[in-house]
Write a structure and sequence with these properties.
The protein is of the alpha+beta class. Among the domains are: about 120 residues, no CATH class; about 180 residues, no CATH class. The protein has 14 helices and 10 strands. Strand 1 and strand 2 form a beta hairpin. The termini are far apart.
Length: about 450
């Protein structure tokens, strides 16, 4: 029967074609023709694999009414897949500009982008998120200060094919021309120094507060008091070519704060960065740096001891030029002494070399501002992974463990870099001590010597 069906099929097709030809102008024929025609939109908008030709990056697809300022710094990295939505001055700060961006990318991807950009382009990271889930970056490059706030947002009216979250990005910056804060000419100088120890006070150490009138201060400074110095960037050392550019900047910032002005080693022209720092020097620098960083916060300053104080150490008498600082640290419980219940620490050994574990033990309480955590060898080994953890003094274990919690701002990471050997008894160089003292505080909540200079310079 199959041979008879084929002619029937051909006959049916012939009848259909004849009908269409005969009724070419009928509505049915026109509808059929339109249903089979090509989509005219494809002729005007050719698409290759779903992507329009000549499509701009999302960061360039901004509202025609929202444009970056003409003086927007070229050094600021802009996330490629972000759309500019708003530009405005920051409330309460006439010099700070805020730009708000929106991106469909996850916050961890954007945070990773900015972390890599800052590290690759020599930005000085002052603050960064503790994880990759977003947060706040604060970075500095030359005189440009930048704040990047990354926050994940929920999309309430998301379509089925649209990502359910977006990321809001805030870039706040101070233009180069106004990065250095200017003083308020109408501010009363007495208000500037209110509640702050002055050069005439026995408790004072460090730089003179802005606005202080030195002419009205007594000139009969006690012999055992550390002479205050004004902040000056003129103190320059000729031998800093022996250290890295980063360490050189740390030393210069601290020198501008007057931290090394009374150092027995630092001469007018040489810092001797490779020399070993002594207990005496580090104690002096530690007190001076802390008080300079917190010059406007008396609650965080270390009070100097008076000559009438009973010496905590038998080898540091009240006549010692560094007695006020050393005794002050002991009375504050920041260094081991009989005052803190350590009956074995009766000697300070002021001219002995400072070791790595001592550097941490003395400074960590000033970073965390709280009691150090309990620690044991296993806890330190699991966190840091040091091969020589067994050589660390039990008293210093707590400081080493607490330092790990400080992330990239930890003293060990900043001073000694990546290492699997802590070498706790190794002497510390003057450059290493300066690097440790350049920053006080925890990750995300601290202050650097650079920031202290901006607050202090008149």
């Amino acid at each position: 029967m199959l041979p008879y069906k084929r002619p029937a099929v051909f006959l049916s097709l012939a009848v259909l074609l004849t009908s269409l030809t005969a009724c070419g102008n009928s509505p049915v024929a026109k509808n059929l023709e339109q249903s089979l025609a090509a989509d005219p939109r494809l002729q005007n908008n050719p698409v290759v694999l779903g992507e329009a030709k000549g499509k701009e990056p999302l960061s360039q697809q901004t509202d025609s009414k929202v444009q970056l300022p003409a003086d927007f710094p070229q050094d600021i990295p802009i996330y490629p897949n972000a759309k500019l939505e708003e530009v405005k001055p920051v409330s309460g700060s006439e010099n700070r500009i805020s730009t708000r961006w929106q991106s469909s990318d996850p916050s961890n991807l954007i945070a990773s982008f900015y972390r890599n950009q800052f590290q690759a382009n020599n930005w000085q990271i002052l603050q960064q998120p503790t994880d990759d889930g977003g947060g706040i970056f604060e970075a500095r490059r030359n005189d440009l200060l930048l704040k990047v706030a990354i926050q994940a947002k929920s999309v309430t009216n998301a379509t089925p094919n649209q990502p359910q979250t977006s990321t809001e990005l805030l870039l706040e910056y101070i233009p180069n021309s106004s990065a250095t804060a200017q003083p308020n000419p109408t501010q009363n100088s007495s208000e500037t120094t209110n509640n702050i120890p002055q050069p005439s006070d026995s408790q004072f150490i460090g730089p003179v507060a802005p606005g202080a009138n030195l002419a009205t201060q007594p000139t009969n400074t006690p012999e055992n008091q550390i002479t205050p110095t004004t902040i000056s960037s003129s103190q320059e050392f000729n031998d800093l070519n022996k250290v890295s550019p980063e360490a050189r900047q740390h030393i210069q910032d601290l020198a501008a704060l007057g931290i090394f002005s009374q150092s027995s080693k630092a001469t007018k022209n040489n810092f001797e960065p490779g020399k070993i720092v002594t207990h005496r020097e580090y104690a002096h620098w530690l007190v001076a740096a802390n008080n300079a960083m917190y010059a406007n916060n008396p609650a965080k300053q270390i009070r100097l001891a008076s000559e009438s104080a009973q010496p905590a150490f038998s080898d540091v008498s009240p006549k010692d030029p560094d007695f006020p600082a050393i005794q002050g640290l002991a009375e504050a419980g920041l260094i081991p002494s009989p005052l803190s219940g350590d009956s074995t620490s009766v000697l300070f050994r002021p001219d002995a070399p400072l070791t790595r574990e001592q550097l941490l033990l003395w400074k960590l309480p000033l970073d965390t501002r709280q009691a150090l955590p309990a620690a044991n060898l296993d806890a330190v080994k699991q966190t840091w992974g040091f091969q020589d953890v067994g050589k660390i003094d039990p008293k210093a274990l707590r400081a080493v463990l607490a330092d790990f919690q400080n992330g990239e701002q930890s003293n060990i990471r900043r001073v000694f870099g990546y290492t699997t050997l802590f070498q706790p008894k190794k002497p510390v160089t003057r450059a290493e001590a300066a690097t440790a003292l350049w920053y006080f505080g925890t990750q995300g909540e601290g202050i650097s010597a650079t920031e202290a200079l901006k607050l202090k310079r008149p």
